[in-house]
From TrEMBL:
Residues 1-23 form the signal peptide. The keyword Hydrolase applies. The gene is 5574940. Zn(2+) binds at H149, H153, H159. This is Metalloendopeptidase. Binds 1 zinc ion per subunit. One of its GO terms (molecular function) is metalloendopeptidase activity. PANTHER family: DISCOIDIN, CUB, EGF, LAMININ , AND ZINC METALLOPROTEASE DOMAIN CONTAINING (PTHR10127), MEPRIN A SUBUNIT BETA (PTHR10127:SF814). Keywords: Hydrolase, Metal-binding, Metalloprotease, Protease, Signal, Zinc. SUPFAM superfamilies: Metalloproteases ('zincins'), catalytic domain.
């Protein structure tokens, strides 16, 4: 009886430790208001044409970062040293699980500039020639998991919520979706954003939030399994990590 009580207490403590990470009150509006592709992805003209055609992947091998290295610049004009520290910690989370490395830019032609404009959380997708951009609003999305989410976009990750097998796991309340964002919740047809053989991942950090694109504050995306929680900005799932290492196998070692 004593053992059973101890186990119950342990489960309660574990639940308490897990819940705050998922219920920080993160406002997903910072990822949706900009009008970018699926809310927080800035596409190039070439990528927009590919998305419209639906025939080819948006991110191919030539759009991945060479030698698994991402040269970056953190804008001192819009981000404080404390912000820069948190961004570097988010980079380390990815580095600890992969051979991807974020390195301060020297003379690199292709590089990432991270800014802290007052509104919005967004990024470009994959490695584009020359300047790539990412924005983390200090007042809205300066959260380690939100930064990891955007950095994975920079590496070429799309949103899991749009995978073709989504409807086996999630329901979309279309009546709650803002009309201008209906397309943002369409399934990815064809090969637009490959999932690299990974089955649908309800635990991914690359999901939309439950009320993403809502016009009334009510949930737009509901897991069929009520025990599943989507849209967290906590940490990469095991499948996220596996996909990352498939996309970026050992490149510099």
């Amino acid at each position: 009886m004593e053992l059973h009580g101890s186990v119950s207490l342990l489960m309660l403590l574990l639940s308490a430790a897990w819940l705050p990470v998922h219920s920080k009150g993160y406002n997903y509006d910072c990822e949706t208001r900009t009008g970018n592709y699926e809310g927080d992805i800035v596409l190039t003209e070439r990528q927009e044409e590919i998305v419209i055609s639906g025939r080819d992947p948006v991110v191919t091998d030539v759009d991945k970062w060479a030698n698994n290295l991402v040269p970056y610049v953190i804008e001192a004009e819009t981000l404080t040293p404390d912000h820069a520290k948190l961004i570097r910690e988010a980079m380390t989370k990815i580095e600890d699980e992969s051979t991807v490395r974020f390195v301060p830019r020297k003379q690199d032609r292709d590089y990432l500039v991270i800014s802290g404009e007052t509104s919005g959380c967004w990024s470009t997708l994959g490695r584009n020639r020359g300047l790539n951009r990412m924005n983390i609003s200090p007042s809205e999305c300066m959260l380690e998991g939100a930064i990891v989410h955007q950095l994975l976009h920079v590496l070429g990750f799309g949103h899991v919520t749009n995978q073709q097998d989504r409807d086996f796991y999630l329901d979309v309340n279309w009546d709650h979706v803002r009309p201008e964002h209906v397309k943002s919740l369409n399934l990815h047809e064809g090969r637009i954003v490959p999932n690299y053989g990974m089955p649908f991942d309800v635990e991914s950090i690359m999901h939309f939030g439950p009320n993403h694109f809502s016009h009334n504050g009510l949930d737009t995306i509901v897991p069929k399994n009520e025990n599943h929680i989507i849209g967290h900005r906590a940490e990469m799932s095991l499948k996220d990590i596996r996909k990352l290492n498939i996309m970026y196998p050992c490149g510099y070692c």
